[in-house]
Amino acid sequence: MKINKLINFGYCVSDVNYESKTDASDIKNLIGDGRIVCIKNTQPVAPTLLVTFYKNIGSVAAQSEKLKDCLVDGFPELIRVKKDGFFKGQEDGELFWHNAILNKSDAEDIVAMYMHSLADEGGDTYFTDAQTAYKDLDTEIKRDIDQLMCVAVPMTNIKETNPRILKLLAKSYQGQIYPTQEAAYEWVDVNGVKTHTKMLDEKELVVTHPINGEKGIHFPWTVFRSIAGKSKAESKELFAFLKDHLLQEKYVYRHQWSKYDICLSDQVHSLHKRDAFQGSRELWRSGIWV
């Protein structure tokens, strides 16, 4: 296995043995250290090898037959990400900053993305490093945010029929991630528990990473509306500060995809987003718990 550093943070890896538990363990540790690991492949990687590789890293979520139209045939661990499926984004394909955990009590620690079919144009993916961003904060600021809780935006009810609410839903993270309201309520985690049952009213702003034990910022701002115990003005000021801090160039990596790339993205101390794109781009997504 060959390992090189990416620009700003993360690693680029090649010559991976997808059946090797040693390679899988090494890559898991690289994700904990660098937020993102991008694996370059010159040939397609068979679904069975992808699933074997991911299961050597950790436990992998398998979706139900009710979502079979969004699954790679015969592999409930592999979700097709495209414009008419999960993580569809906006009409032009752009998908805002998010991660898998969002405001849930728990969810996958790593998201694996395999590029099955490239876009004709666009579709780059961006990743943040909120662990280093936290380390770089002044001690006084760390002391201030270490105990803070973010107040979450509630998930829209599956039976919602109000046209105004449904219009807002289409623009929300829920509307851009799930192809239908019904699909949002069928999505499960590694234990088969439906994730909508794990939505919290409040979530810690600073959390400890399960791989390396380091502190970092967990701030998917698309699902948070305020900071508990702070006024509206104070919350707005802190939201703006954190977003500006986290989105500095040195904490962002932009990945320009090649066919058969695999990107393994930390979900605890990182967010990711996607550029608008043209064409029938299709990526296969898996969620991994460590």
Would you give an account of this structure?
There is one protein chain. By secondary structure, the protein is α+β, with helices and mostly antiparallel strands. The chain has one domain: Double-stranded beta-helix (4-Layer Sandwich), CATH 3.60.130.10. Helices cover 24% and strands 28% of the residues. The protein contains eight helices and 20 strands. Strands 1, 2, 3, 4, 5, 6, 8, 17 and 20 form a nine-stranded mixed sheet that branches. A four-stranded antiparallel sheet has the order 7-18-10-16. Strand 5 and strand 6 form a beta hairpin. The protein is globular. The two termini are 21 Å apart.
Question: Strands, helices and their partners?
Answer:
Elements: E1 2-5, E2 11-14, H1 21-34, E3 36-39, H2 47-57, E4 59-60, E5 71-72, E6 75-81, E7 95-98, E8 110-117, E9 121-122, E10 125-128, H3 130-135, H4 139-145, E11 149-152, H5 163-171, H6 173-177, H7 181-184, E12 202-204, E13 206-208, E14 215-217, E15 224-227, H8 232-246, E16 252-255, E17 262-266, E18 272-274, E19 277-278, E20 282-289
Parallel strand pairs: 2-3
Antiparallel strand pairs: 1-2, 3-17, 4-20, 5-6, 6-20, 7-18, 8-17, 8-20, 9-19, 10-16, 10-18, 11-12, 11-15, 13-14
